[in-house]
Amino acid sequence: MEPEEERERRRTEATPARVAPQPRFHRARAALSRFAPVVWLRSISEIDHTTGLVQLPSLGWRFSEPHPELREMFTSVVRDAPRNIAWAFEERKNSAIVPARLIAEGKPDGEDFGDLRRAISQSDQEFCIAASEDIELIIQALAAQPALPIASRLYVTQLAKRSAEELVCVVESLTGEARAGMTFRAVGEPGVEVRLTALHWYPPRPETRRRAPLAKVTLIGAEAGRIGLKALLVSTPGP
Q1: Which residue has better confidence, 209 or 140?
Q2: What is the pTM of this model?
Q3: If DSSP states are collapsed to H, E and C, what string results for the chain?
Q4: Among 102, 87, 67, which residue's Cα sits nearest to residue 141?
């Protein structure tokens, strides 16, 4: 008969090794990084290892550049993916997905939710467990979203000529490939949409610290005059 040690060895080799699931932080980063580089991320740990309580979850992050074209997608996921409680997507300096209860019961000035989160975690574990289930569904939904085409982004560094319908300026090209004929929207200026009609690239200057290429562009549109210095322009999808 086969020795017991040999049978145990065969059983061990035939049984697939169990892979420990990645922490929520890493799964959230992987899901968000599909859309743009993530330079800061905060994800509340699933369990408070001091008390053993399930913590009220949320996600906070910042991309390397503003991505207003993603706003509708995040709003849709936060609305449709959860099954237990209401959630909210907020966009300020950082972006955040949080239980709507934190906003409803939080401070009017929008300060950190730390104290309220801890209070809810200690007094309402049923709510925290429901929220923990929801955040997993949200992360899964984000991971399943198709990555959007990379938009072109232009950052205005100098103003050369400005009128109500025309802007000639120097821009720093951040991402994507800017071309004459493309339409751009100004971040933070609702309704400002312009067409890039002329573009001249400046030769690179290695002696400067600037990494992104510079170009002189002409922008035409009814609200072109509202675009100012340090404005961020993002291309709109083509027809």
Answers
A1: 140
A2: 0.65
A3: CCCHHHHHHHHHHHCCCCCCCCCHHHHHHHHHCCCCCEEEEEECCCECCCCCCECCCCEEEEECCCCHHHHHHHHHHHHHCCCCCCEEEEECCCEEEEEHHHHHHCCCCCCCCHHHHHHHHHHCHHHHHHHHHHHHHHHHHHHHCCCCCCCCEEEEEEEEEECCCEEEEEEEEEECCCCCCCEEEECCCCCCEEEEEEEEECCCCCCCCCCCCEEEEEEECCCHHHCCCCCEEEECCCC
A4: 87
Average pLDDT over residues 213-239: 89
Residue 18 identity (one-letter amino acid): R
234 token code pair: 């993002």
CB 201 within 8 A of CB 130: no
